[in-house]
Write the structure tokens for this entry.
Amino acid sequence: MPDLFEDVARRFKSFSGGRSRGWRMDDGAVKAAYARWAPVYDWVFGVVFNSGRRAAVDVVNELPAGRVLECGVGTGISLPDYRRDHRITGVDLSPEMLDRARARVSTERLGHVEALEEADAGDLAFDDAAFDTSVAMFVITVVPDPSAVMSELARVTRRGGAVILVSHFADQKGWRKMIGEVFAPLSAALGWHTDFQLGRIMGRSDLRLAQKRRVGPLGFFTLLVFERL
């Protein structure tokens, strides 16, 4: 495990030219990093991110049955937790992560999963208003163009539907900020930035913030639920 982390960290450093704070991975670097992490992602991050994922899925499961898009579905670790009357489509940039998601769907017989597709979250091929709900868990602070991803999430979600995000944002202070700084090197290896400002994705005319609350270990993550206007 340490060797894997060191290898990914070295790869990140080579992509970044030694930069870390404020620098964002491009799509190629993100795919390379997650290809390395795919075999052990669930073991390493499953517990760490579980409470944030479950908080987002719980919001989905409180909604009427409908079509749900999960952007950044990864290994599909959240797929078994969705209510079975929802119809789930998952997209991810990493083919290696998607291979594991497809294996999970087959092994666990997750018939409510309609499709798993390789896609750029900032340039989705789906029709406008194709989904009742769109979810992005621990994604928005990774992608090279967060504004484009927010636009796409809003576009493919029907009016009155929900756009749900969960991640760590840099609006935290005190000991939460200190924890973010401690974990910054690990976050950087995934292209996940602890210095991401929440304001970068707020203030859109097509989305109304309906809920914001801290979730996860010690409230380290933030859950955002938007209504599509």
